[in-house]
Amino acid sequence: MTEMKKKVCPACGGKKVIKGECVCDMEWRGSQKGDDWEDCQCTPDQTCKECHGKGYIEEAK
């Protein structure tokens, strides 16, 4: 039987979630909310696709 070794996920660093990023630029307008404009575009947080939200990957020894 093969033993499985847990290794910290290199994609998320063991945090299970990859934080979204925000980009703010006064040159372009993002989206309008009511009478105000949002100058920042943000991506949402995502569950890590490499480790499927476990924080580690399993490797055969």
Structural summary, described in words:
- The chain has 61 residues and is mostly beta strands.
- It has one domain.
- Helices cover 0% and strands 43% of the residues.
- It has no helices and eight strands.
- Strands 1-8 form a two-stranded antiparallel sheet.
Mean pLDDT: 85
Radius of gyration: 19 Å
| Number of DSSP helical runs | 0
- Sketch the topology as an H/E string, one letter per element: EEEEEEEE
- Using the alpha-carbon principal axes, give the shape: rod-shaped
Distance between the termini: 10 Å
| Structural domains: how many | 1
Strand content: 35-45%
Residues in helices, as a percent range: under 10%
The biggest sheet, with number of strands, parallel, antiparallel or mixed sense and barrel status, is: 2 strands, antiparallel
The total of beta strands comes to: 8
Q: Which residue ranges are poorly predicted, with pLDDT under 50 across at least 5 consecutive positions? A: none
Strand order of the largest sheet: 1-8
Structural class: mainly beta
Write the layout of secondary structure elements.
Blueprint: E1 4-8, E2 17-18, E3 22-24, E4 31-33, E5 36-38, E6 40-42, E7 46-47, E8 56-60
Antiparallel strand pairs: 1-8, 2-7, 3-6, 4-5
List keywords for this structure.
single chain; 61 residues; mainly beta; two-stranded antiparallel ribbon; two-stranded antiparallel sheet; 43% strand
